[in-house]
Design goal:
This protein is α/β, with parallel strands linked by helices. It has one domain: 3-Layer(aba) Sandwich (Rossmann fold), CATH 3.40.50.300. Helix content is 37%, strand content 24%. The chain contains 10 helices and 10 strands. The protein has a 6-stranded mixed sheet, with helices on both faces. Strands 2-1-4-5 form a 4-stranded antiparallel sheet, with helices on one face. Strand 1 and strand 2 form a beta hairpin. Helix 5 packs across helix 6 and helix 6 packs parallel to helix 7. The longest helix is centred in the C-terminal third of the chain and has 18 residues. The chain binds adenosine-5'-diphosphate (ADP) and magnesium ion. Magnesium ion binds next to helix 1. Belongs to the ABC transporter superfamily.
Length: 270
């Protein structure tokens, strides 16, 4: 489970001025959820998920994953922790000079980290992370895992293609495979379908849903698009001007559309 507690993020905005991008955010995301975070551009969505894997450090508050307060984790421990959190992006962020196989394997070929220690981390997560940290995975092992991932995202035929020769949907499939290479328990998706047409969006959403069902990975979906939330999220939080203005089961949130921002989203004004 992921708990976000009283999370505030401020950016310095010139001398003696600060911009509050997240203001006292509280969230509980349960294992296996596909949890949507929806809001207009500039609402603070990306900053919120970047705090969840500590790409941004919260100004105040805590992120607790499976009972471990990760806000205090630093250095190589943080590096190890991130192996438990995959992430995909709007513009895919693939390595253009590497083919599909090598892009996917990149998630596994990590530097050896000795003796990382994350206080309070549950034994199962520790064992899994330690497995990847203890030694560089062997070539045969990497190849086997890449084969599985190619199967998972249905890209067998494209394994030696370079990203430039792939469609947007295929690129996002590669990114998904790479993000899942170390079997993370959380997958963060920041506007993962925003660069795709509606048909391709549907196929990526279907894939994410199938992966969630098969692997039980918890998925957090950041989006400004209502239909994305409606199609795959069991729960949703609506964020507006740095605050959560509604949160709960998707149907409930969109039926009790009491706040203006929710009405706007439902009405498709965005
Ligand atoms: P969203 O993803 O909902 O569009 P963001 O989280 O990207 O919103 O941004 C929220 C606000 O925080 C915006 O006003 C943005 O300009 C500001 N912001 C984001 N990152 C930084 C940063 N590193 N430094 C200063 N301001 C930032
Ligand atoms: Mg964003």
């Amino acid at each position: 489970m992921i708990q976000v507690k009283e999370l505030t993020k401020e950016f310095k905005n010139g001398k003696n001025r600060k911009l509050t991008v997240l203001n006292n955010i509280n969230l509980e995301i349960e294992d296996g959820d596909i949890f949507g975070i929806i809001g207009m551009s500039g609402a603070g969505k990306s900053t919120l998920i970047r705090c969840i894997n500590l790409l941004e450090r919260p100004t105040r508050g805590h992120i607790i994953i499976d009972g471990t307060d990760i806000t205090e984790v630093r250095g190589k421990n943080l590096h190890a922790l991130r192996k438990n959190i995959g992430m995909i992006f709007q513009n895919f962020n693939l390595l253009m000079q590497k083919n599909v196989r090598k892009n996917i394997a990149f998630g596994l070929e990590i530097t050896k980290l000795k003796d990382f220690k994350i206080p309070g981390m549950n034994a199962e997560n520790y064992k899994k992370l330690n497995y990847f940290q203890k030694r560089k995975a062997k070539k045969a092992e990497i190849n086997k895992r890449v084969d599985e991932l190619l199967e998972l995202v249905d890209l067998r035929e494209k394994e030696y293609y370079y990203p430039a020769k792939l469609s947007g949907g295929q690129r996002q499939r590669v990114a998904i495979a790479r993000a899942l290479a170390t079997r993370p328990s959380i997958l963060l998706c920041d506007e993962a379908t925003s660069a795709l047409d509606s048909k391709t969006t549907d196929s990526i959403l279907k894939l994410l849903k199938r992966i969630n069902e098969e692997t039980k990975v918890t998925i957090i979906v950041i989006t400004h698009e209502m239909n994305v939330v409606q199609k795959i999220c069991n729960k949703v939080a609506v964020i507006d001007k740095s605050e959560i203005v509604a949160c709960g089961y998707t149907e409930d949130v969109f039926q009790n559309n009491s706040s203006e921002i929710v009405r706007n989203l439902v009405g498709g004004i965005m």
